[in-house]
Amino acid sequence: MENWINNKKYTQNGKRILKLLSNFSNYTIIYFRLLFFLAIIFYSSNCSETGDTNYIQSIEYFEDKVGSKDFEEVISSPLQKYSSKHFIRFGFSPSTYWIRVVLKKDVKDSPLFLEIGNPRLSEVDFYYYNDRTEKWETKGYGRFTNLDEREFKTHHYISAFSPSSKFQEIWIRVFSRTEVYLPIDISSVNQIVNYNRGQDIVKSWVIGFNFLVCILGLIGFIIFKRDYLLYFFAYLFFLNLSLVENESIAGDYFSLSRLIRYDQIDQVTRYLTYIFAGLFSFNYILTKELKEKY
C-alpha cells in the first residue's frame, strides 16, 4: 500500500492522508483480531460454567393484562409455554406477567440461586414453596429496589431458595414500564464460585487490554503525531463491550453505577459503537475506491 502511494503523483499532504488511511485500516484489522481472540476466551469461559448447568427444565407464563389477579388465581389458570429456557422477552407491554419456572427433576443441590439479569424491571416478586411450612412464600423486591437493600449486593436480581420436593417449580411476577426482558438462570453455590473465577480472568484481560490501548494511543500521538483517534475509538468500542452486561467492568471498578443508570450507559455506549463502526466502514470504502481509481 505504501509503495503504491509513493508511486503516484500526489501532493505531500495527499500522501500523508492516504498513508494515515492505510495505517488506520491495517491497525483496525489487527485490533479486530485481538478482539475476536478475547471474545473466544470470554465465550468459552461463560459457556463452560453456565451453558450446561442450568437447572431450568421449561418456562411457562400467564399474561395479566389488567394486573388485578393474585397468586392463587394465576396458579390455577391455563399457561402458555415459552420456547427459551434462558430468557423471556415480551417487548413493551403494560401487562403484568406471571412466569412459572419448572425445575429439572434431578435437582438435589441446596440452596439454589435464582438470577434475573435485568435491573430495569419496575416490580419483581419471587414465589417458592417452603416444605417446612407447607406454604407458598414470596420475596418482594418492590419498585426499583436499591442495591444496598437487596439480599445480594449485585446489579442483578438474585434470590436464594431451597428446591421443594413437592413442587419442582418457582414463580416470578414481573412488571416493567419499559421493555420486559428477563435473562433467567438458576445456579448452585459451586457454579457461582466457578463462574465468578472465570469472570475475574476475563476482567483482567479486558482491563489489561484497555491500558494497552491507552499506552499505544499515547505513544502514537506523541511520537508519530497520528493514529491516536484509532486507539481512542478502539478503547471506547471495547469499553462498550464491557458495559453491555449489567455486571460491567466500569460498574465494578470505577463505580459508574452510583453516578448514572445502566440503561443510560447502555445507550451512550451503543452510540459510540455505531460511530466507530461507521468510521471503520467509511475508511475501508474510501481506501478501496482510491486504490481502484488511482
Outline the structure in words.
The chain is an alpha+beta fold and 294 residues long. It folds into two domains: 2-47 and 193-293, no CATH class; 55-187, Immunoglobulin-like (Sandwich), CATH 2.60.40.2380. The protein is built from seven helices and ten strands. It has helices spanning 2-7, 12-50, 71-75, 189-224, 228-243, 249-253, 262-293; strands at 56-64, 80-82, 87-92, 96-103, 112-116, 123-130, 135-143, 157-161, 169-175, 179-187. The strands form two sheets. The protein has a six-stranded antiparallel β-sheet with strand order 2-1-4-9-6-7, with no helix packed on it. A four-stranded antiparallel β-sheet has the order 3-10-5-8. A hairpin with a 4-residue loop joins strand 6 (123-130) and strand 7. Helix 2 (12-50) packs across helix 7 and helix 4 packs antiparallel against helix 5. It is globular. The termini are close together.
